[in-house]
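Lab notebook, bench 4. We co-purified these components, and the gel suggests they stay together. Before we commit to crystallization screens, I want a quick structural picture of the whole thing.
Request: model the full complex, all chains together.
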Amino acid sequence: MPELPEVETTVRALKPKIEKSLIKTFELRNKNLRWPVSSNLAKILISKRVTSLSRRAKYLIVNLDSEYLLIHLGMSGSLRYLSNNISPQKHDHWDLCFENGMLLRYTDPRRFGSIHYTKDFKNHFLIKSLGPEPLSDAFDENYLYKISRGREVPIKTLIMNSRIVVGIGNIYACEALFDSSIKPTKKAKRITKNDSKALVAAIKKVLEKAIKAGGTTLRDYLNPDNSPGYFKVELQVYGRGKEDCLKCGRILKEIRMNNRSTVFCPNCQR
DNA sequence: CTTACCGCCTGTCGGC
DNA sequence: TGCCGACAGGCGGTAA
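Here is the predicted assembly.
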């Protein structure tokens, strides 16, 4: 399950491999991803050069000299940089093949991921409404405090809203709220300035920690070179419902919010 | 405008 | 042992 740290790790790993590479072909085996993959893509991409690779939210941005590919890994997607003599498997939906005999292979069993081509990624429908990056200076305690005023939704729902701040999935929302001692169900409009300060700091902390750990949030994620990351991030609450709180020892509670599993400590988080 | 809910998918897991 | 339903959940679209 690629969260922002996995996407960031993927970008860092692929950057030196594919930047400056010349595209030879794009081979599409299954166009039925989250959004149907454009059938024009193969034609468009022939002989284009990758000028840079970056990330916006959980999208990988492949810059082709002012044209762009937007790639999302969805729930189960991954990218690997491989030699072109390795046969694709069942869930390998497309290959971006380079002149040097290597390729970028997209694998995604659940097909929640996507790939789009655009000349103007900033105004692309998937990008234009996104809020600030959580690790940027724009995402600070004042921003979160102000934008949470008057909001009836739970604070957990708010920080998972990509119009408010991008890249915070269910796992890191639970972890950051635990770290900042805020109950997930607390109404956004009720968070204090101190809450906002603690939560922003916690979000940056857990994301940065996971990136430093090599982006390995969950069991089956592999980096583009097939390495499993350096070590797993120890999750404090996610997936630990009914287990002991690592701060106070009491029993962690698991509830559902917006149909998502939500774990917190009723004692530590208020 | 905000909020709540739907649907897309398949591998994994627990229960019988 | 094998079947089957529940679950996992990012996120845009839609309706209220």
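The first helix of chain A runs from residue 4 to 18. Worth comparing against the SEC data before the next meeting. DSSP finds six helices and ten strands in chain A.
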